[in-house]
Amino acid sequence: TDPSFIRNFCIIAHIDHGKSTLADRMLGVTGAVADRDMRAQYLDRMDIERERGITIKSQAVRMPWELDGQTYALNMIDTPGHVDFTYEVSRSLAACEGAILLVDAAQGIEAQTLANLYLAMENDLEIIPVLNKIDLPAADPEKYAKELANLIGGSPDDVLKVSGKTGAGVEELLDRVVQRIPNPVGNPDAPARAMIFDSVYDTYRGVITYVRMIDGHLSPRERIQMMSTRAVHELLEIGVSSPEPSPTKGLGVGEVGYLITGVKDVRQSKVGDTVTTAAKPSTEALPGYTDPKPMVFSGLYPIDGSDYPVLRDALDKLKLSDASLNYEPETSVALGFGFRCGFLGLLHLEIVTERLEREFNLDLIATAPSVTYEVTTDDKKTVTVTNPSEFPGGKIASVEEPMVKVGILAPKDYVGTIMELCQGRRGALLGMEYFGEDRVELRYTMPLGEIVFDFFDHLKSRTQGYASLDYEPSGAQTADLVKVDILLQGEQVDAFSAIVHRDKAYAYGVLMTERLKKLIPRQQFEVPIQAAIGARIIARESVRAMRKDVLAKCYGGDISRKRKLLEKQKEGKKRMKMVGRVEVPQEAFIAALSGE
Ligand code: GDP
Ligand code: MG
């Protein structure tokens, strides 16, 4: 295809503002998907995406559109809207010349709208502002058109008003994509360069790599080379998604399509990498490959210990489709054998856990999420700690924790309560900005460790659900952090160790000792439950010894009841964990960890 008849664009939006619905509507309006084949959220392939209504992996689709007698190829690249996947969003944006900025006409701008808009502007994309859901009775397009125009410049009259649901305004929007978004430019005679903006694992076909051609041409059966690793693969198939995969005679400048090489592991096909040909390789890779770094760590343990091999296998399989997932074996006194896993963020953690449980039929317990600490001891050694139980003993010189820049958008009535929450989480206010008459963006720097633990829940409940949140990494800072251990009869229970700010150590100690006191069954002897920083005890509870006559009662009673009791006890034994001399049912640990 002649690049002047190609338009590459994406839709950026806050979650739930209607991106998937609009994308579906575009597939219908352009005839890319026949009405009878249409199903809701056509592009969101994974079940979990459809159910939760979020897009996890981006997908690309090609649609024909005619304007003034000329047929254009519109490539729509779907991007994940959530902060955890910022890296994937930015790679998708780099594959486009323009972006539709989609905003719910009953909600206005939200935190993720802003975060993604800034990314789009950094990539020099042409922005087309659009208000969606104008069919809603609560829609206020006039008000929010002004808000949008204020944000990106231009007149409120330039803001298109559409409904992905009814289809109103969608044809005009497609016309505007053709008129406003620049066509791609590149050198057709140069060595081939294609940017990988997504790669997905398909059980039948192996890895499917989505690329945007920058220069040159790729043809079927050519040998291709990944520029970061120099690995060479045979090209088994090349084509475009329209939206079902259809093989083509190749891809040229500006085109968006897919490659299949028979490779089985997405790590061989990294998002952000440059593809060239083995015969005539390019010498200069396209900008922008960095490995996304895990930000949040958690131990994942099978509730039934015999599921450990299944969990290992499941993680290996997930890794094929999710290169950003990290894991290594770990053992815990309280929880047995499991894996320490690294995630891009909290949503990523949730999605991975849910996929493991659902797709591999596992019951899992996750330890409290932790971030990465750089701990320097008095003898000048620095260790990286992602698991609190590995926090070095002895004298500590300093501890560094990761920081994030946080943006919170909310109606202005909630400013007070949000500030209170952020200050309580050691946030430092960076700035505050009004959008329209009644909404404010608050910007903070905050320790990531303060956000991974129920921050979002608190934010939502304090603002009746009106606040939205976005964050990005922003270096590291030293802080007065300590490790709090929880001890049962003097023995440390690893899964409960936590790294917290000194000011919050006492509160954590009290919370955990009280929880465990309620959950640990009585033993033959008294069991002290303590919270400690090093050798210093900061909180203490105890489980009193069992009274002797409790057992005595069973004897002499009816025999079947006694047998039942004994059987129950045997069953329970299987799941008992020994901490020193103390017998604790695993359920108690799980309940204490999940705060139930
Ligand atoms: P996404 O998270 O941005 O992909 O949003 P979805 O497309 O999944 O839409 C979120 C919710 O808004 C769904 O319940 C949709 O049915 C609804 N929705 C999307 N577009 C419209 C629209 O134009 N009008 C109305 N009334 N509802 C819409
Ligand atoms: Mg969606």
TrEMBL record:
Reactions mediated catalytically: GTP + H2O = GDP + phosphate + H(+)
SMART domains referenced in this protein's UniProt entry, alphabetically: EFG_C (SM00838)
Pfam families (alphabetical): EFG_C (PF00679), GTP_EFTU (PF00009), LepA_C (PF06421)
Protein name: Elongation factor 4
UniProt xrefs under CDD domains: EF4_II, EF4_III, LepA, lepA_C
Domain (Tr-type G): residue spans on this chain: 4-185
Record-level GO BP terms: positive regulation of translation
Subcellular location: Cell membrane
